[in-house]
């Protein structure tokens, strides 16, 4: 935070007086923003919204006459569309998934973080709609692209969704439109990939249309921070693009943080997620070390976290999951390689985190061996297959890797996850279709080993410990583990078979 601006940033940075048709925003933006001092100085000296297209769009945004669009109605796009609609914009979501479109148009939500009642209210007010037809773009003034950015099997970026969405926009682009990319990607995507596609029809970015990047920062199931109150980083192709994008977000997002370029905004998101991935990799390696040394890594982290400065606790686990943390660092390392730079921290953290499911398999094998059971033929229940607590998202979940590894070793697999009713076998190599086992009706004692992968709040962990023959706890979910519990990164005080005791 820039010194002396703690109070100023509570005000919206985009308000300015209008003089005729020229709207002065730069000085207000610079004075109240979180941007760098150099960027602020350049804005104060030279920035004016004066082009006719910009003035018209800004007036539409301020008067709530703007017609906003969001491409991609998943965990990022739907919450954003709802916030835009709540702010007073007539908002249309576009998605190829007809089921999602039908749900929104019927006033229903399919995401836990978005209230169905809110969707119904906005639909009834005529401020929220959805469509599978990209021709609706002809009627829109602004477009936010919120599509997936996965990795290929080679760990290279897969930008096919961004390209496809941008091409749909390009064929319907008209003067004065504002296009904002939100999908997480490597620095340079906006100006090296998106901009040339949009300019194919002859319109010029920053002149005839406006382009910016603003990284999504969604954290599914977070009860404290959602789309509205997580600060929005915005970097435009030009200062005018930045200001217009910021103005659009101003009504829907509590705090807008302008930066000097799309590349800076793109790098911001990759820094955030790489920071997490590298630190999780470090604590995962410490967990492996503590296993060898007979030390409880959970106790170590808990005690270290009492230091009031210079330390931030991260916790070990069975591997990374979700649409961001396991993927984004590889976008950065790939881009670095294109410049001849080797991102060694990122690659090493990826290797450590990627190996954690193999370590969990060794824990399962050790737990079964302690009661004279082989892994081949053992009945193993995986508790939790979503990538994090209390969500239904299984993208990149370490549970999928674990299931594949256990299956190749001959285990008889089941899973329990109240948020994931079915698990198609196509999601992991040579997988089999599985259905959620309700532990309220099927006792854990029916299995030779229960493996806690995702610590959902709806699981009764003490009951799991009491009923389970052997339990492998990768999340430190069981508060008072007994001798039949083997924890990740902790001493292996296993139960002894009575025949061997």
Descriptive key words:
501 residues; alpha/beta; Rossmann fold; 2 domains; 5-stranded parallel sheet; 15 helices; 17 strands; 13% strand; disordered N terminus
Task: Describe this structure as you would to a colleague.
With 501 residues, the chain is an alpha/beta fold. The protein folds into 2 domains: 8-260, Rossmann fold (3-Layer(aba) Sandwich); 281-501, NAD(P)-binding Rossmann-like Domain (Rossmann fold), CATH 3.40.50. The chain is 37% helix and 13% strand. The protein contains 15 helices and 17 strands. The protein has an 8-stranded mixed beta sheet, sandwiched between helices. β11 (379-383), α14 (398-408) and β12 form a beta-alpha-beta unit. α1 packs antiparallel against α2 (37-46), α3 (52-62) packs parallel to α9 and α10 packs parallel to α13. The protein is elongated.
Give a short summary of the structure.
This protein is of the alpha/beta class and 501 residues long.
Counted by DSSP, the helix tally is: 15
Structural class: alpha/beta
Oligomer: single chain
Q: Please count the beta strands (DSSP E, at least 2 residues each).
A: 17
Q: Give the rounded overall mean pLDDT.
A: 89
CATH class of the largest domain equals: Alpha Beta
What sort of overall outline do the alpha carbons produce when their principal axes are compared? Answer: elongated
Main sheet attributes: strand count, strand direction, barrel closure: 8 strands, mixed
Order of strands, widest sheet: 5-4-3-6-7-8-9-10
CATH topology of the largest domain: Rossmann fold
Corresponding CATH superfamily of the largest domain? NAD(P)-binding Rossmann-like Domain
Rg estimate, integer Å: 25 Å
Distance between the termini: 62 Å
Estimate what percentage of residues fall within beta strands. 5-15%
């Amino acid at each position: 935070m820039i010194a002396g601006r703690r109070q100023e940033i509570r005000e919206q940075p985009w308000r300015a007086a209008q003089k005729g048709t020229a709207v002065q925003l730069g000085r207000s933006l610079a004075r109240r923003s979180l941007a760098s001092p150099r960027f602020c100085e350049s804005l104060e000296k030279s920035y004016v919204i004066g082009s006719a297209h910009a003035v018209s769009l800004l007036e539409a945004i301020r008067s709530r006459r703007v017609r906003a669009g969001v491409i991609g109605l998943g965990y990022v796009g739907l919450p954003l569309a709802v916030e835009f609609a709540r702010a007073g914009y007539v908002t249309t979501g576009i998605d190829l998934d007809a089921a999602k479109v039908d749900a929104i148009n019927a006033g229903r939500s399919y995401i836990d973080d978005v209230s169905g009642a809110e969707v119904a209210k906005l639909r009834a007010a005529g401020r929220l709609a959805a469509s599978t037809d990209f021709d609706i773009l002809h009627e829109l003034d602004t477009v936010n692209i919120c599509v997936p950015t996965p990795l290929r099997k080679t760990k290279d970026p897969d930008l096919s969704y961004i390209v496809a969405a941008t091409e749909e926009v390009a064929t319907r682009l008209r003067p004065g439109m504002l296009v904002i990319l939100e999908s997480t990607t490597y620095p340079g995507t906006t100006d090296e990939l998106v901009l040339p596609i949009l300019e194919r029809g002859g319109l010029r970015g920053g002149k005839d249309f406006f382009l910016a990047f603003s990284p999504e920062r969604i954290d599914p199931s977070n009860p404290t921070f959602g789309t509205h109150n997580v600060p929005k980083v915005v970097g435009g192709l030009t200062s005018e693009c930045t200001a217009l994008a910021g103005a659009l977000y101003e009504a829907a997002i509590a705090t807008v943080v302008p930066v000097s370029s799309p590349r800076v905004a793109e790098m911001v998101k990759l820094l955030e997620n790489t920071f997490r991935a590298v630190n999780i990799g470090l604590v995962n390696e410490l967990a492996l070390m503590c296993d060898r040394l007979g030390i409880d890594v959970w106790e170590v982290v808990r005690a270290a976290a009492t230091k009031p400065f210079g330390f931030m606790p991260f916790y070990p686990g069975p591997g990374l999951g979700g649409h961001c943390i396991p993927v984004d660092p590889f976008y950065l390392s790939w881009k670095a390689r294109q410049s001849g730079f080797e991102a060694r921290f990122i690659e090493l953290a990826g290797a450590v985190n990627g190996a954690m499911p193999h370590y969990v398999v060794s824990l399962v094998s050790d737990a079964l061996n302690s009661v004279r059971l082989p892994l081949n033929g053992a009945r193993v229940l995986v508790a939790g297959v979503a990538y994090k607590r209390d969500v239904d998202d299984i993208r990149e979940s370490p549970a999928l890797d674990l299931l594949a590894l256990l299956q190749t070793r001959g285990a008889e697999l089941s899973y329990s996850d109240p948020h994931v009713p079915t698990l198609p076998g196509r999601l992991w190599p040579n997988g089999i279709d599985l259905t959620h086992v309700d532990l309220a009706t099927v006792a854990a004692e029916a299995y030779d080993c229960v493996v806690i992968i995702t610590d959902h709040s709806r699981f009764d962990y003490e009951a799991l410990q009491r009923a389970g023959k052997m339990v492998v706890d990768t999340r430190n979910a069981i508060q008072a583990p007994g001798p039949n519990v083997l924890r990740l990164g902790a001493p292996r005080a296993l139960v002894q078979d009575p025949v061997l005791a």
